[in-house]
Structure formats: structure tokens, C-alpha cells
Amino acid sequence: MTALASIRDLTVTYRRDGNEATALKDFSLDIEAGERLAIIGESGSGKSTLALAIAGLLPASTKTEGKIDWFLPSALGVKAPPSVLPDMSGRTEGGLVEHRPQKLFTRSSHPPRGGRDIGFVFQDPSASLDPVMPIGKQIAEVARTHLGLTWSQSYARAKTLLERVRLPDPDSALRAFPHQLSGGQKQRVAIAAAIAAGPKLLIADEATSALDTIVQAEIVALIRRLVTEDGMTLLFISHDIALAAELAGRIAVFRHGQLVELGMTAQIVGAPAQPYTRALLDAHIGLDTKPLLNRAGLHA
Ligand SMILES: Nc1ncnc2c1ncn2[C@@H]1O[C@H](COP(=O)(O)OP(=O)(O)OP(=O)(O)O)[C@@H](O)[C@H]1O
């Protein structure tokens, strides 16, 4: 396998009101092209910080050290990101590309473009969907902006995507507003928008956590199918190791901003090397419950 992104010695420190909090410490990892990698850990362990660092979406006040090398195809025909997605474009300096605002450097011909190279699915689809724009337009806008399609081509793509995420009656769904859909349906739309421009990397950050168990399983199955069909690399962030194990080829376990254990899913689930990983497995859910940590002789 070849790396899609290589993260080296990444340390992320948030600064607020004169205080500093280090959310990631000396973190190194290669994300292999085409793999399904899960990031697991309890609340506050730094999972979302990693996702934001990778996507170039950390707040400008954040202090970062280390680097991320990207191995992306050429950026020929690059279009500006659409207004619905954050602008994470950088500038080229002597072959290296600055990755704003955290000054992580990439080795590829361009920094990763939000929406184009990286698709992002969050826990709350309402955070990424515009409540006053028909969902067809939201998906079409991503395709139009990044792929240079006409509106009619973009709407055709949006309809195909709504079919692919199995939204009932895609024709009328194109004209629906987010509030007319269930939570699971909204997440399907958010996924359709996230993959509309054919990203290489799909980051799903607690994408199923707000859903009930059955819908969770459906969304996991949907993500697995789409990632396979489109040959995407998946970064699946979750506090639920059992859920992640259903989807991931590799699992990285986080604790207090550091990598505790990294391995193939079968090894992590069948023979974890670390007591903390064993504790997560024993819990399955409710990873931050104190009794569990106590049982394993660990402290939160
Ligand atoms: N914008 C921010 N400003 C200051 N501190 C932050 C900020 N974002 C996160 N943190 C802190 O960084 C640490 C890691 O947070 P992060 O959100 O990355 O963890 P997480 O594992 O994703 O947790 P959760 O599952 O609850 O989202 C936490 O201590 C958190 O309070």
C-alpha cells in the first residue's frame, strides 16, 4: 500500500484566554491510500482535533508542530471550494505548500482541498446542511464548484447521489429541505454532499453517534458501500470500538492526545496489547464510564 497522507510528530495546542491545552502530542501515522482506518478513544482524547488538523480546519489561533505530507494527484483544473464548505486553500512556496492556518506542510502539488480531496461528515448533519436551501442544490453546488459542471449536470449528479445513498424518491428529495427529513435521511444527504466531488479521503467524525442503533448500522453499511464503490480512503472516528470494528481494516486507539495502540482490526479486537484497548472492548459503549476504567486499573 502507498500512503495518502503521512503525519509526523504532530502536536496541537489550543490557546484560549491565555490558557493552553495540548490536544495531540507527537502523533505520527501514515494513512494508507484506500484503507478504512478507525480512530477510537473516549471523549476529549483528541480524535476530532486530528480530523480537523488533517482537513486543515483547526482554528487560526491553534499552535501546531510537526507536518503532514500529502500524496495527492495533480491539482490541474482546481476550482475554488464552494461557499458551503470551509476554505482551506494554501499557497505554494518553493515546492512546499503551506497548509493554513496551522502551517503543516504538504509534499503534494497542492494542499488538500476541502470538499474536493477531503469529504467531511460530522455528527450533526444540520451543521453541514443549509436549512434554507433545497438539498438537491446543496449537493449540486459541491459538484458544480469542484468539478466545473453546469447546473443541469450538477443536478443530474445530485440525483444519482441521492439514489446511491438510498434516499426514497430522489426526484422530490432534490427539492426537499433538511427539516423535512429524518435524522438518518439528513445524514445520508450529508454523505451525498461530502462525496459529490469525488474526494480521495472521507472523514466521518462520530457520523453515526446521534442516531439510534438500527440507523447507525445502516449508515455504517452505507459508508462501507460508498467507500468501496468509489475507492475512497476512510477515516472513521468514533468512541464506539465495536462499531468501528465492523467497518475498519485498521484501528488506532487514542488516549489523552496520544496513540495508545495501532493495529489491524482483528488484532486490536482479538488480542489487544494495551489494557486500555481491552477496557474499551469490554465496555463497547459508554467508554468514559468510570467503573470500567477502574475495573481495568486505569484512571480517567
Ligand atoms: N477549540 C478548542 N479550544 C480549546 N480546547 C479545545 C478546542 N477543541 C478541543 N479542545 C480540547 O482538546 C481536547 C481534545 O478534544 P477533541 O474534541 O479533539 O477530542 P475528541 O476525542 O474528539 O472528543 P469528543 O469525542 O468528545 O468529540 C479536549 O481536552 C478539548 O477540551
TrEMBL record:
It comes from the Bacteria. One of its GO terms (molecular function) is ATP binding. Coiled coil: none annotated. One of its GO terms (cellular component) is plasma membrane. InterPro entries: AAA+_ATPase, ABC_Ni/Peptide_Import, ABC_transporter-like_ATP-bd, ABC_transporter-like_CS, P-loop_NTPase. It holds the Pfam family ABC_tran. It is found in: Cell inner membrane. Its main location: membrane. It is a peripheral membrane protein. Belongs to the ABC transporter superfamily. This is ABC transporter ATP-binding protein. The lineage of its organism: Bacteria, Pseudomonadati, Pseudomonadota, Alphaproteobacteria, Hyphomicrobiales.
